[in-house]
Specification:
Elements lengths: L2 E12 L2 E11 L3 E5 L6 H8 L7 E6 L2 E2 L4 H6 L1 E4 L11 H9 L7 H10 L13 H12 L6 E5 L7 H14 L6 E5 L3 H7 L2 E6 L2 E7 H7 L1 E6 L5 H5 L3 E4 L3 E6 L2 H8 L4 E4 L2 H11 L4
Parallel strand pairs: 3-8, 3-9, 6-7, 7-8
Antiparallel strand pairs: 1-2, 1-4, 4-5, 9-10, 11-13, 11-14, 12-13
The chain binds adenosine-5'-triphosphate.
The site of adenosine-5'-triphosphate (ATP) has 11 residues, from helix 1.
Length: 288
């Protein structure tokens, strides 16, 4: 499988935070969701891809090219959607478009105009008078109007209403119908990823916990519930996280078959959601 982005043992340090030997890849033609609690290093990782930050060590390739040396060419091929406002507030939408479009060799004005219409965006309004959702729509319209092969988005759906969130997810699913296009986006809304992602990369505390196919992750991780009397030392060891209450227990495992063999039919076992996997892994402080 072709990788559009490949991190190999990448390190980046700030005073009180470190991306630690980060290894993962973004596969061509698929949607990869990037999850992790606040402050885990998602934005830092995305900034490294975009050459907005320099790594301290390790190897990072985008489209098979070394990022820093080839950042100009690489950025032409990426549609980047930021969570923050990165536009000039005093410009109108039209003026902003004129400025941004001049950076892209493959700018497609008719595509942009059709997104303006589809998103119901006002040409004359000043950026500072756009709502959060409108700014996000504008950012997305720009990202989708220069024939980018890779769409990277940092929390694109945060602060958006469910109707527009759904629209974005539909657009992303449409984009990857073209097998040459790839989407990589960070989000805290794991249910969005359950709907549309093919791969999930999970980062915690600057380390990649897993980078795997979504279906494989959801098959592997299970929540177990049962009576406390069923627990013993061997069984406890099979759990990534265990929460005991006065009447029973709830636990996360990544080896459901072994748990079933040991505990039989006295337990209730069901697939874990991405949110449960993330929350319980973080609470345990363990790495899967
Ligand atoms: N330029 C910087 N200088 C110093 N520390 C930084 C800088 N940028 C980020 N950090 C720190 O790096 C850590 C990771 O931040 P990052 O923004 O990458 O996390 P995140 O996973 O995107 O978080 P969130 O989900 O809250 O957006 C944080 O502790 C942050 O304070």
């Amino acid at each position: 499988m072709e990788n559009v982005v490949k991190f190999e043992n990448v390190n980046k340090s700030f005073n009180d935070f470190q991306l630690n030997d980060v290894c993962f890849s973004v596969k061509k033609g698929y949607i990869t969701g990037f999850i992790g609690p606040n402050g885990s290093g998602k934005t830092t990782t995305i900034k490294l891809i975009m050459s907005l930050l320099k790594r301290n060590s390790g190897d990072l390739k985008v489209f098979g090219e070394e990022t820093v040396a080839n950042s100009k060419e690489i950025k032409q091929r990426i549609g980047f959607v930021y969570a923050e406002n990165h536009f000039y507030n005093h410009l109108s939408v039209k003026q902003m478009k004129r400025l941004v479009s001049s950076f892209y060799d493959n700018w497609d004005e008719s595509t942009f105009q059709s997104y303006m219409k589809y998103f119901n965006l006002p040409w004359k309004k000043k950026i500072k008078h756009l709502s959060t959702g409108m700014r996000m729509k504008l950012s997305l319209a720009i990202a989708l109007s220069h024939d980018a092969e890779l769409i990277i988005m940092d929390e694109p759906t945060s602060g958006l209403d469910p109707v527009f969130r759904r629209e974005i997810l539909d657009i992303l699913s449409e984009i990857i119908q073209d097998e040459n296009k790839t989407v990589f986006f960070s989000t805290h809304i794991t249910t969005d990823l359950e709907q549309i992602a093919d791969y999930i990369t999970f980062i915690y505390n600057g380390e990649i916990i897993f980078d795997d196919e979504k279906d494989h992750i959801l098959e592997k991780y299970h929540i177990i519930r049962g009576a406390k009397e069923l627990l013993d030392d061997d069984i406890r060891q099979m759990f990534i996280h265990l929460r005991e209450t006065s009447v029973g227990f709830e636990a996360l495992t990544d080896n459901p078959q072994k748990v079933r063999n040991l505990m039989g039919n006295d337990i209730i076992m069901e697939p874990a959601s991405l949110e449960e996997i993330m929350v319980y892994t973080v609470r345990s402080g363990q790495h899967a």
